[in-house]
Amino acid sequence: MSVATATPTWPMYRTLVGVGMLCGLLIAITFQGTRPVIERNRAEALQKAVFAVLPSASRSATFLVTPDGDFVPDTDAPGERVYAGFDDSGQLVGVAIETAGMGYADTMTILYGYAPQQEAIVGIRVLTSKETPGLGDKIETDPAFLENFVALDVSLDESGTALRNTIQTVKKGQKTDAWQIDGITGATISSVAIGDMLAASSARWVPAIHAQLDQFKTGDDSGGS
Amino acid sequence: MAVPDKKPVIATDEFIKGLWRENPVFVQVLGMCPVLAVTNTAMNAIAMGLATSFVMLMSNTLVSTLRNFIPRQVRIATYILIIATFVTIVDYAIEAISLELHKSLGAFISLIVVNCLILGRAEAFASKHTVRIAIVDALGMGVGFTLALLCLGGVREIFGEGALFGIALFPDGFEPWIVMILPSGGFFTLAGWLLLINYMQQRKQRSLAAAEEVTQ
Asked: Is there a contact between B183 and B37 (Cβ–Cβ < 8 Å)?
């Protein structure tokens, strides 16, 4: 082959730049076209998850957590967010909180609903996980396991700054107290991970939310169902 | 370089070869990463098959269109650029269509870029043929790939979850074979299909040889 005789610099340059620009244009057009749809899908999925973990909520509003620990109606400012759920009469029924932790395979994120009146976690939803299909992913589907999160006790002690009991996962069938989670046989690591994530997250958020409950009652107008 | 367009017979043959004689999965054994990784359910298999087919169709078309324009020194880089572009487009499109599907296919959508089947068709076929034939070739290979993925995904979902396309097939007493939806189940199922297809092709060859002996 006579490839080495002449390396066509200009055609090579022309091809790579030309094809590169064409490809860039195609990607930009697709990105512009799909972005609103993707953002709407994401918002809808989150909204659905909020209502799933706060069963009695009929509308929700997003709150931004300021560095001082205050909850303010959402702005575009960067920071952590929690999602408050309200019933038809505008009463706060609970706050949905996102948390992440290490599962059996990779990090997983969950959303859970904290209901201040009941002082309990009233629902969880796995947002992302790569747990083993058929075993670890039972944390999303096993009805007996999800039963744990109908009313999982997270009551505060007398000082109001810490939980009275730490959430813990026990072996299946050995749950004796309201703050314990019945684990899943065959998904031990995944179910313990859920317990640990909830324990760590509730220890931080429950006292913080409890101290600032008034701030959530002002958010009635924002958001929607 | 280009093969002259002869008769529609050639086009039909280019399509059929992807389905059976040169099936990308069962005969060429190409693109094993998605074949093994995302065929745990029939739905995932179809989605991955269609996404790959779309990328193959578009890249074959573009490569064939530009075939006299791309210097051979930079052809692989150009093909990869073209393939990566369409994979990115598919990635956005799937995310817009269904977040659930996007979640279950995960990183394997982006990994279509390195599916050697697509680069193989661009390099071995589209760069040497006219646009029309290259499109037919991509369609044939795409349908063949999708069907092969569906063969694996269907079997794995039926045994692994007792369902097909999410519809339960067995009475409640059925204990799913969890191994089938785990990675090892992919290897078992692929081995089973390869065994079956090879057996059928060998039998066909034997009967052809026998027929020739008789006529001689």
From this structure: yes
